[in-house]
């Protein structure tokens, strides 16, 4: 199994990650308050026929579900009181937060794939 831990900080109260090659994500928010939405997209924002899209240009986000590991419930928003898992990942870009006032000191995203 291959794994990777990303430690991130919010910019404008949101984070956009390219999680394309990963199968499972575990997310934890540290030092914050409020709730943050989980949004996903495959749209990299590139112009048709171009390959220049990236997480910075990603657009057309939709709500995605994660499992709250403390009780197994499905959620589309997260707080800093639990761990959340997305498995399998079926989109290329993940946005945590929607630009509202809910932020955090850091965001931990543990990414794994089985090979």
Could you explain how this protein is built, in words?
With 115 residues, this protein is mainly beta. The chain has strands at 2-8, 15-18, 24-32, 36-41, 62-63, 66-68, 74-75, 77-78, 83-86, 93-96, 104-113. It has a six-stranded antiparallel β-sheet, with no helix packed on it. Strands 2, 4, 5, 8 and 10 form a five-stranded antiparallel β-sheet that branches. Strand 6 and strand 7 form a beta hairpin.
Number of helices: 0
Sum up the overall morphology in one term. Answer: globular
Helix amount, in percent? under 10%
Q: Give the strand content.
A: over 45%
Helix-strand makeup class: mainly beta
Mean of the pLDDT scores?
85
Helix and strand string, N-terminal first?
Answer: EEEEEEEEEEE
Write the layout of secondary structure elements.
Blueprint: E1 2-8, E2 15-18, E3 24-32, E4 36-41, E5 62-63, E6 66-68, E7 74-75, E8 77-78, E9 83-86, E10 93-96, E11 104-113
Antiparallel strand pairs: 1-11, 2-10, 3-9, 3-11, 4-5, 4-8, 4-10, 6-7, 6-9
